[in-house]
Design brief:
With about 775 residues, this protein is an alpha/beta fold. It has 20 helices and 37 strands. The strands form eight sheets. The protein has a nine-stranded parallel beta sheet with strand order 10-9-5-4-3-16-13-12-11. Strands 19-18-20-21-28-27-26-23-24 form a nine-stranded mixed beta sheet, with helices on both faces. A six-stranded antiparallel beta sheet has the order 17-30-31-37-33-34, covered by helices on one side. Bound molecules: zinc ion.
């Protein structure tokens, strides 16, 4: 494996010298393994298309003022210095950066006849770089609208949808069927870029329905109805409109690929762009799973972190998309070198440590770096220094960073249907917060996990010893069957909140579809309505009681009237010995609990906070369950957490919630974890397998800016002591640290390797062979 990859990159360099400016040569590179060390029986001739081979990207997002000042010589040198292998260059769409003959394909404001795209494309090809021609295709000027009003989107009143001065085009009109294909063909014929991306390819989102004649006719043909005049998630026609919109975006994906491949050859792909947020993909009708089934590469437009999800969000989205796309394919991610995020300043440098940690956490999750500047000229030149060091390290260690498989025993299940039909207009509170709280608890506890689409559980089940449903309200019958099978085969399950309570359309079921597994049943109808939203959207003054209570052990005052209680706490309460309650914040309804199911948390209803004199429990004990545990006949462990501690942790960040969630995951996995890492700090750990070795990323997110951007200094942590479970082909004899750049001592005992990392500044990657 390794020798093949090394020889591949060596052959590539010599090939590119020979290839010169022949762009077509990029489509397929034939590699002859030059070493005699290829695996026995392995093919000695490999065909690796460019989109599987180019791992370091760069983009100067051209503004309309740039054609006057674009210094191609300087940027060529920047490509060279940063070891960039491919560039994304603005070509056409709203404006053209070349002299286009396609009617109404208006030149950029200051183009003045210059063929900027052509010059840049030739420069990149001369230097051996691959070129993604970038489109931005969903808006146009008024003259185009006047000439072809049927190309454009209109609202319910028949008025055109506008974005500033520009008119927004309709995905069901000739703009997408004829105009864009004409531009794609023109660019291919003249310039031969390797492929295309598109910034706004999916058109208007869910919040801006189009009622044009084309849309009305097509929807009528599909659904037999007019487009619903207003949003109503309970209306089956509205739900059908949602699904119809998704289908149209897939048609556009396929259409554009047919056009580019017909004109430019089989490897002239069209790759759109996709978001790092599932909620955002939903808003744009982009079906991630279906897109990944047809994509050769995902160009991820996810430039920076938010305070709530942190740098670790980048490692997670890398794993989530790779699980859909395959781990042998590439996912370059646009990483802002400018002050993107909160707030945004397009022309100011992002503090280097902030940009670096975002890049490194993405690399840990399997993403490829793609530096991104807006504009070709900057007076804040500090941003040019950011990419180089990471890119140089990436180049030296590339073989450890691609084509690998994650090792985790925990799968966290998700689905886009859940975000749409359960999350509806409130996916942040109903879907994203529970997900974020649950996964943050795993990251903080250094428990490796993989996001798995619920429809893929059946196929992927053998990899995992436990699965987690973080408030996965909407579940199809097939997904429910897959969860049942998983538990029947002895797998562990942690489910929270309203998991499995809603059908595929978002209608409530009379009881949890998995109620028998949970050991608990609803006692009254539950609705996903405004009242539910209000209760989960607030933090009430409520608590949870841990059972049994341990009052006799407590070093503190005793209530004379209450008997001392002494018992044994369940292992899920490890670390809670000195408390009988934890803060909660949510509300709970009574449940019917099956015999043989343990109730370990009970609800303490709200009581006043102010004034302090009133802050005493009116009802100190109820039988309303907050946590149910049971062991199935096949030995599988099931934890059901009606208390929404995942959402609470996502919002309130209380360590009790995170600790209990992590304890529950360890319990349902029966402590079957491939990795233990002990030591201080917030570390995001990712473990992978390649033939003959384990690759462990530890990204140090311990920082004053960890939860409030930006980071402007790195703070080292250590020592970290690590234990890794050995595999048949990984004996643990040698350990190499890719950031420290040296070998390190390692001990092996009873199937585990053990080693210590004295100090980690930004990240370390340990390779165990
Ligand atoms: Zn329309």
């Amino acid at each position: 494996m390794e020798s093949t990859l090394i020889s591949a990159s060596q052959s590539r360099r010599s090939f590119l010298k020979r290839a010169g400016s022949v762009a077509a040569a990029f489509t397929v590179i034939k590699l002859r393994a030059s070493h005699g060390t290829a695996l026995p029986g392995a093919q000695t001739t490999l065909e690796i298309p460019w989109y599987r081979r180019v791992t370091r990207w760069g983009q100067t997002n051209i503004t309309e003022a740039d054609p006057k000042v674009y210094d191609i010589t300087w940027w060529r040198e920047h490509w060279r210095k940063t070891e960039t292998q491919g560039v994304i260059i603005n070509a056409g769409g709203i404006v053209a950066y070349y002299p286009s003959k396609v009617p109404f394909h208006r030149p950029a404001k200051h183009l003045e006849g210059r063929d900027l795209f052509g010059e840049l494309c030739r420069a990149a090809h001369d230097q051996g770089l691959a070129v993604f021609a970038r489109m931005d295709s969903n808006r146009a000027q008024e003259d185009f609208y006047r000439a072809h009003p049927d190309y454009f989107a209109v609202d319910a009143e028949g008025q055109p949808h506008k974005a500033g001065d520009l008119f927004v085009t309709c995905v069901n009109g000739p703009y997408y069927e004829e105009h864009i294909p004409a531009i794609l063909r023109e660019i291919i014929e003249r310039y031969h870029p390797e492929g295309f991306t598109d910034n706004s390819w999916s058109g208007l989102g869910r919040g801006s329905p189009c009622f044009c004649a084309n849309c009305q006719a097509k929807f009528k043909e599909c659904a037999g109805h007019s487009i619903p005049a207003r949003k109503d998630w309970n209306d089956p026609i509205y739900r059908q409109w949602i699904k119809w919109n998704y289908q149209r975006r897939l048609e556009i994906w396929d259409l554009n690929n047919r056009v580019t491949r017909a004109a430019g050859g089989a490897n002239c792909i069209w790759a759109g762009m996709n978001s790092g947020s599932i909620s955002s993909q939903c808003q744009s009708f982009r079906d991630y799973r279906e897109i990944c089934r047809r994509a050769d590469i995902i160009m991820l437009d996810h430039q920076s972190r938010s305070d709530s999800s942190g740098f670790q969000n980048n490692g997670e989205i890398g794993k989530l998309v790779h699980e859909l796309l395959g781990w042998d394919k590439l996912i370059p991610e646009s990483m802002a070198m400018y002050q993107a995020g909160k707030p945004t300043f397009r022309l100011a440098s992002k503090p280097e440590p902030e940009a670096r940690l975002w890049m490194l956490d993405g690399v840990a999750g399997g993403l490829q770096p793609w530096w991104h500047h807006v504009g070709a000229y900057h007076e804040d030149r500090r941003m040019y220094q950011t990419a180089g060091p990471v890119y140089h390290w990436h180049k030296s260690n590339e073989r450890y960073l691609i084509d690998r498989r994650p090792i985790a025993t925990v799968a966290v299940l998700w689905s886009q249907e859940n975000t749409d039909f359960f999350g509806r207009d409130n996916s942040e509170v109903l879907v994203d917060l529970p997900w974020r709280g649950l996964t943050q608890s795993l990251i903080r506890a250094r428990i490796p996990y993989v996001p798995i689409h619920a429809d893929d559980l059946e196929r992927e089940a053998p990899r995992f010893s436990a699965i987690v449903l973080p408030n996965l309200g909407v579940m199809s019958q097939g997904q429910i069957t897959a969860v049942r099978r998983f538990v029947e085969r002895g797998g562990g399950l942690l489910a929270t909140g309203l998991s499995s309570l809603f059908d595929e359309g978002g209608d409530p079921r009379p009881d949890f579809a998995l109620a028998d597994l949970f050991g608990g049943h609803t006692t009254k109808p539950v609705r996903n309505d405004a009242a539910h939203l209000k209760s989960v959207g607030e933090t009430a003054h409520t608590y949870l009681r841990l059972t049994p209570e341990l009052r006799a052990r407590v070093d503190g005052p005793h209530v004379a009237s209450e008997p001392a209680i002494e018992g044994e706490r369940h292992p899920v309460f490890s670390g809670f010995d000195d408390t009988d309650i934890i803060p909660f914040g949510g509300t709970l309804d009574s449940m019917r609990v099956d015999p043989g199911t343990q109730v370990l948390l009970t609800f303490i209803p709200p009581f006043p906070i102010y004034p302090p004199e009133t802050a005493w429990m009116r009802e100190s004990k109820t039988d309303v369950p907050g946590l149910l545990l049971k062991t199935t006949p096949s030995g599988g462990r099931v934890a059901f957490l009606p208390a929404d501690l995942d959402r609470r942790y996502g919002r309130d960040n209380l360590p009790d919630h995170g600790r209990l969630l992590a304890n529950l995951v360890r319990w349902v996995t029966k402590d079957n974890l491939p990795l233990w890492a002990d030591g201080p700090g917030l570390l995001d750990v990712h473990l992978y397998h390649q033939p003959g070795r384990l690759v462990l990323h530890l990204v140090n997110l311990t920082n004053a800016g960890a939860w409030r951007q930006p980071v402007d200094e790195l703070i080292p942590v250590g020592p970290i002591s690590v234990r890794l479970r050995l595999l048949d082909d990984v004996r643990g004899k040698h350990l190499r640290l890719l950031v420290a750049g040296r070998q390190a001592p390692v001990k092996t005992t009873k199937g585990w390797a053990q080693f210590q990392l004295d100090s980690i500044l930004d990240h370390e990657v340990a390779v165990l062979m």
